[in-house]
Amino acid sequence: MSSRINPTQKFCTALVCSFILFQGCVAWPLLTGAVGLAAGKKGGGGLFFLPGGGTPTLSRVEISSPNSSFAKTTSMSLVATAAYSNGTHKDITADAVWSSSNSSIISMSAGGQATGTGVGTADISIAYENKTAQISLSVTSAPLSSISISCINQTDNLPKGITRQCTLTGNFADGSNQDLTNDPNATWSTGSSAIATIDSTGLVTAIDAGTTSIRASYNSFNATNLSLTVSSAALVSIAVTPTNKSLALGKNQQYTATGTYTDNSNQDITNSVTWNSSDTIVATISNTAGSRGFLSTEDMGTSTITATLNSISGNTDVTVTAAVLESISITPSSPSTPKGRTLNLVATGIFSDGHNENITDQVTWSSEDNSIVTVDNGSGFEGRASGINVGTIDVTAGIGGIEETVSFSVTAAVLESIQLTADDSSIAKGTSTTILATGVYSDGSSQNITGSVSWSSSLTSVIQLGTLTATPKKQVNSPNSGSLGTSTITATSGSISGTVDITVTAAKLVSIAVTPTNPSVAKGLTKDFTATGTYTDSSTQNLTASVTWASSDTSKATISNAAGTEGKATAAAIGTTNITATLGTITSPSTTLTVTAAVLQSITITPSNPSVAKGRSENLSATGTYSDNSTQDLTTSVTWSSSNNSTVGVSNVNGTKGKATGVSVGTATITATLGSVSNSITFTVTSAALDSIEVHITDSSIAKGTSTLAEATGTYSDGTTSDITDQVVWNSSQTSIIQLGVLTAAPKKTLTSPNNGSLGISNISATLGSISGNANLTVTAATLVSIQVDPTNPSVAKGLTQNFTATGTYTDASTQDLTTSVTWASSSTSKATISNAGGSNGLATTLATGTTNITATLGSVTSPASVLTVTAAALTSITIAPSPTLSIAKGRTQNFTATGHYTDSSTSDLTTQVTWSSFDQTKATVSNTSGTNGKLTALQEGSTQISASYNSVTSTDTAVTVTAAALDSISITPTNSSLAKGYTTPFTANGVYSDATTLDITAQVTWASSNTSSSTISNSSGNEGVATAVAVGTSTISATLGSVSSSTNFTVTAAVLVSISVSPTNSNVYTTQTKDFTATGTYSDSTTQNLTTSVTWASSDTGKATISNASGTEGKATGVAAGTITISATSGSVSGNTQLTVVFLDTTAPTVSNVVSLSPTTVRVTFSESVNSTQATTAANYKLALTSAVSGSCSDNSNFSSASNISVSSVSGSGAIYTLTLASSQNSGTNYTVIVNKSGIQDLSGSPNNLGCANYGDFVGQEQLKVSSASCASTSTVIINFSKPIKSGNNVGNSAECSSTAECANRYSFVGTTDLGTINSAKILDGVVCGGATADSAKVCVTHSLLQTGAQYTIIAANNVNGDGFDNTSWGSIRDSGDSENIQSSPRDRASFLGCGTSPVNFEDGPISIDPNGSTFGYLADFNSKIYTGPNNVGNGALRFAYDGSGPESVQFSFVKDTNGQNSDTSNVSSNSATTRENSIAVPPYVTLGHSGCTQNDATLANGCGPDNESGRGIFTTGSLVSNPYIFIAAARTVPSGSNYNFDYIYYSNDTSTNLNYKYIDMGSITGTVTAGTSSIAVLNDRVFPGFAKPSNDGTGTGGGLNAPDFGFITFNSSDSGSTGNCTAGSNCDAYDGTNGRRIRIDYMPFFGGPSAGGNGSINNSPNWGYYIGVDSSIVFKDRIYAANGGLHAVGHNGSIIRSNSSSPINACSSKNNCSDWTEVGPRTNQKWHNSTTNNWFSLELAKFYDLIPADRAFAQFAEYNDKLYVTRTICIQGTQASGIRTTAGTVTGCTDGTDTNRRAQLWKCDPTLTSTSTECDSGDWTVVGDDGNGITNFGDSTNKTITMVAKNGSYLYVGFDNPNGIRIYRTNTTNPGSASNVWTLVANGGLTDSTNVQQIFSSVSVNTGGVYYLYVSVGKNNTPVRVYRQQNL
């Protein structure tokens, strides 16, 4: 849409302006400068007002007048307007109260009609809702002389359908005039209403062509008619369609011109207009007859197309976009390739402008039958067709509905290579081997072609060719007289050949001889043997240290294979055994070793260093050790002696032999002798020791609250005694009875009965060391101590009584009321007596004045005396009340009282006893009548005196004044009345007085309403008692005068409707649009109410606008056609109205017409019409999403909620075309969708239209230059494939080509399993290099100096970035052929490939992979038929490759964000607050799981932490859920939040793409707040059982934890739906304890779990004392879960092994030591577990909880092998045991400090059949495998100290050790390996092939591929890229 105003818009604008001007003259003052607003304010307001929010309040009222003066006898209409607080206005002309300051000059009538009644000036006022306004008007004297009509453009014809405004002017005698157009006395008409009509405002409407006249009259005056000619409808505007069309270059378009006429009719005027294109370079349009309006595109751009007829024109924009594809051509046109080979097809697009373009990478390729041919659509491989099977099918290339199909033929496979496999790659001199030649064909099939190829040997002096075997295989021989070395054997068929190297090594061993022959040796002694080998070349060699020695009967003798003692035989039992020596497959003839009886060697005395207290004895024992290591008790056989019998005596008497007795303090040597063998020990006698303690208590029984003393006497081993009271530890068995006090100086121990204690017996004990004594102490009831008498020293009048109480105080400080128990006594019974009688105990009676002592006695206790004084009593005065004055109204009464006062200060009421008198009984009387004594009656106004007398005592007078009668009550009228809300009514109050008179007191009372929110009542002068009804309800109206009040009920009923106002007033609406009107009712109480839904709405002309009365849309007006109508709202007899103007509107919504990728970082969006450029250049209104990820729909704009894939940085453009600049590059060939926010962009219509559908457009992405792939062309050449053609030129800056090693080193770098030497050259494929590879400007042939193996390599291209493994900023980047793009950053600057050499199949062949990104650790996982190794160092991906090492590729991670707060915890969501990552890419998804040292709340690839701010490595493994494989990953939270780590998430995925999209498992309260990281995962029965490491100490401080380790499950098992519920596999999972999973509380399991909540005082029976406690490893074995962990170096607190009791262990441990679903099965009682009785072997303790490697764990791995369960255990040798829980993290020297000097290895095996259940492991089922005789597993190599791997691989069991000299891996295929080490074979050498870099084992996985088992291991060392090796079982 053009920004210029077209004629149609001008016409409409003129209409609207005319309408506004006319309405302004009538309804709103335009000449406010002269007349002003009636409120006295300058300015005015617009015609249209918008309603505000909330309830508006009236701000002011205003008066407007069309003129400031008018003539006498004439009338003028004034307008009153109310202005409200929200900016709205209301016409109140009919509602306001009008008045004139001088009605003789101007008289006012209702409705604002002013009539001039006399010459002069008067002020006109209005009043409305307490607001007023005023205007001054003048009345002139000139009389009206004539009236005249004038109209706008009155001489011009009026086109049909158009209106014209006419004016009626009154002309006065003085030459003045006045506008009478709207005067009520003016009358308008036309000569013919069929031709034209005129309304009361003078507006003429042309109806039909013809001539008529305009007529007007005013009272008796008639105006001269004005002629009017109505012409045919005139052209108003031209619309050109289609509007804002976007056409591809080469396309044509027919345009149409439609004329719109004044009568709103339309007509096709395409052939009448003149067409024009503003830019004929872009488009031309025809004016030739027959093709008028036909547009032809010429070039890209925008042109304005205009259609013009006379002076009216219309236009639209046309945008010519790039030419569009019209057809496709495929070359070659008849493609053919052998089965198994590929052929690159090329798709050429023929475009609408006739040009051709290679669109191979843009089309979608498809095959009619993928079983014959597949066609690749992958990036960099588009159009690559692969022959699968012989046949012919159709191949199609298509894009955007355009397709082309060719017939593709696949011929038979052809030979591509020959692989030679030698039975032995190395043979001994003089031996032979055979070689198999396998032909590998283009379809991947292979065939034995040994017999059909030609054979040759490169060195016949080393290897000579032999005959074919029957297989057939080719025999090759090493001649006996030949040379050592390597010969290359070549097999050739045509131009194809293959080679294999055969190495001839030194002569091979033939036989072994063992010496001496048939020796003998005593049992227990040793014999050295020697082995001599004879070789194929007849040479001999001493092999004693090389062979494996064996004894046929190890029960008779064993023979050593340990280093340094090889061939040393040890005699074990009397008899014979055969000794043999074996090396490889050669075993010597046996020699017989005869074992004779053993002889005594030594005597051992136990205990070895005895010590006894003087007077005590110790039984010594003597044990003989014989030459066979057997032992025998010789205690009674030896002769015992003491070196000093005065110190120690030792017995040789039968029955007490060996009993040594301490005689005196000192030492002596004790000797045991048998024959010539003896041994001595030192015997120590210490001071006498305490034997017993006797406790003596001074009192055996004490009263409660008292104390006594105790002493302790010790009796010693030598019979002596001693007072040890101050040495012992005292204890009371019942502290509620007896509590321990201090020691006295004696010393004696104080024993106290507490005051609040109990009665009874407590045992008092005294303990010193292990000796104690005791005695009982009895506490009896407390005894009385004292008595207190109350009151103390009272005074009582004679004849009165006094109550006394007695309170007893007891020994325990308690008190008791003893009033009725004591004996009371008075010292002077003549003055007062005191009672001991029941019921009156303690009651003293006064008899005579004076004093007496009152005491109370109980037993021997008597109280102190209380002195009772008796006084006399007498009346002294009388007081009366009221006094001293009284004022009383006439007619009222008052009761008087008289009080007598006595000398003892007592008083008495004498009212009925005194005589009352009044001084003046005419004024008031006072009664002496019984019953009314003292009652005063007021008779007359005046005064009198009132007094009272008794005997001779008279009161003081009270002066009484009688006043006028007083008001007694009030009567209110009317009573219980009602009134409508808003009205008033008067109330009357009548007073009734004390003398029975009445009076109207309406004006004197105070009126009040109890509910002023319902009604108020006035106290204002003149309006007293007038009530106003405020709100519906009831209230109580009260009248009060003084203290007198009366009330009545008053009911307020609902207010009644007075008027209706309609808003907005005088508004407009566009055609087809709606406007909501509101009807507001004003009620009698001046309140308003929204009546919109209750009134009846009406339109004065439904042809122009309709208004709804339908429910839900009441008051909604819809514009139909241009014009002005009246909208009215009616309720009953009340109505209101306003005017509505309908204006024509463009209602066509803009849409997205086209989206095109201009470059990798720019996209052009074209709209269907011009849009608001401010909105359209706002980047936030656009999203660029993957087409496959778009969700929602355009209709509700929900598709704009789709996840953004690339952020939009900025937008430029104008009109209908805009260019988006992206924050990062597109991916080539990826389908993208640009989505535009419908609510954010509008067109340029008068009422802007929001963006409509479609709001999106698809396009295929371009991408910045990258390395797409690489492949070997030969063993010395590699083809690197770029995503687009690259810059050429030999040794030219930024080119991909080079010819010197220096130049090539700037451009490329190799990383791999072997060194590929220097890069010699790089050349873009030209059909010659790389063996004639097809010319391709996007591929480069790179030549290197050293040969490839068949392992993985990575080639990296320069991209002007440092720090990514190939620094090249000093040179720059290889660039595209247009020299405009650098290569993207890592990993898009590199590609991995498989070398063309022989692929490693055994460890000794070298690694199959070295991580190209430098990751230094990697778990292995077999997933998606590939090997995955990860996560990488920064946690954002992994590496994967095929089983043979081919297809290596990086895999990126993608994690969703958990926003679902669960378990009523809204904070339980992913905590990483980052919203973008590098290049402003939006997150989620997150792309990293974090790493140690990552930045919190950062989501970038390099520095970001995980979705929940994870920051350490955890687990990477696989498992099956609902029969589908998943790959799991979990991390650790190493940065605490406050004092907790709050680890909460593991993630899982079954995504097989290179972008692993992970779902989350939120574990909520299944993990504790201190849980820090995942240490193991096992999956059983669709339940995931993760184990977590966490700190475990005292529960305080940062990381202070309890309840370790955490262990639980999350269930995906539908059978759990009725209990915990279950998650759905493949979806995000929200779980917490009891919902979708459970926390098992394995901390309750003894040995395995640590302290529980409550610290050391709240623990299982034997808690794990480690600081970090985790689950080292876990496994599913025979449908049971097994888990193991280490702990602190203390027996019983060192961790263990546990097992589930079923396949569904879903019940949590219920309490400490109570885990019904789990059993502890560790072999802790096995002597070799802790090396008992020394007990210095302990399972390795975790030193950290994240970034763990197997060497950090005590139990690195479990494995199942032949129905047995194996587990590795690394122990730490520690000389002392810990005494309690470790409270801070720490390391152990030689174990966890980075050294291994104190480590040792064990391999434990469980055979479930040994005890109890044959399918479950129990503690007695475990034995050590490969036992060196001491319980250690090292297979004869003492440097094997850390065991980190055990794995089953087919029929073999593999075991691995970390070793600083290079790892060691052993294997055996023995079905049930036991303690023997000779069944284990070292695979390859130490460190495999690289002892420097391969010192640690990280992970292993077994894979069966093609019937062959391979074991893959990931290995390395710190800061070295991880390597993967594999070993086959052949």
From TrEMBL:
Annotated signal peptide: none
A Pfam entry, by short name: Big_2
Biased composition range(s): Polar residues: 618-628
Keyword entries, A-Z: Signal
Location of region: Disordered: 608-628, 1458-1477
Domain BIG2: 57-138, 143-228, 234-319, 324-409, 414-503, 508-593, 599-684, 689-778, 783-868, 874-960, 966-1051, 1056-1141
Name of protein: BIG2 domain-containing protein
